[in-house]
């Protein structure tokens, strides 16, 4: 769960907000509102699934309970790959911040 939260907050809010504001302008605020509404609806769906299948395991467990093992296996591996891509995106985003911090503290320009 923390990988998902880190990917959403780390890359979505801190890294990409400035680039999105330059391109979208005030429409970016509406995109955050719409995305928040969609996330709230998804949270309601997950809470409904959690009350029906009271076992930990997120999307894998829900898919296993409803459809079966083969599709649950696919969903599980898709989640693992999603977390790997998300961790890579967070690393790229935060490395830019780290390079700026090192440059401002030491005056040393790191290669990109």
Automatic annotation (TrEMBL):
<feature type="transmembrane region" description="Helical">
    <location>
        <begin position="29"/>
        <end position="47"/>
    </location>
</feature>
<dbReference type="Pfam" id="PF13520">
    <property type="entry name" value="AA_permease_2"/>
</dbReference>
<dbReference type="InterPro" id="IPR002293">
    <property type="entry name" value="AA/rel_permease1"/>
</dbReference>
<dbReference type="GO" id="GO:0015171">
    <property type="term" value="F:amino acid transmembrane transporter activity"/>
</dbReference>
<keyword id="KW-1133">Transmembrane helix</keyword>
<keyword id="KW-0472">Membrane</keyword>
<protein>
    <recommendedName>
        <fullName>Amino acid permease</fullName>
    </recommendedName>
</protein>
<keyword id="KW-0812">Transmembrane</keyword>
<dbReference type="GO" id="GO:0016020">
    <property type="term" value="C:membrane"/>
</dbReference>
<keyword id="KW-0813">Transport</keyword>
């Amino acid at each position: 769960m923390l990988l998902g939260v880190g990917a959403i907050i780390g890359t979505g809010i801190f890294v990409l907000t400035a680039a999105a504001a330059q391109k979208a302008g005030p429409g970016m605020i509406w995109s955050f509102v719409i995305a928040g509404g969609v996330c709230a609806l998804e949270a309601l769906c997950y809470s409904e699934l959690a009350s029906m299948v009271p076992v930990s395991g997120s999307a894998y467990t829900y898919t296993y309970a409803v459809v079966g093992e083969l599709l649950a296996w696919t969903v599980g591996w898709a989640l693992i790959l999603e977390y790997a891509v998300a961790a890579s995106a967070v690393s790229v985003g935060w490395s830019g911040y780290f390079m700026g911090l090192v440059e401002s503290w030491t005056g040393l320009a790191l290669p990109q």
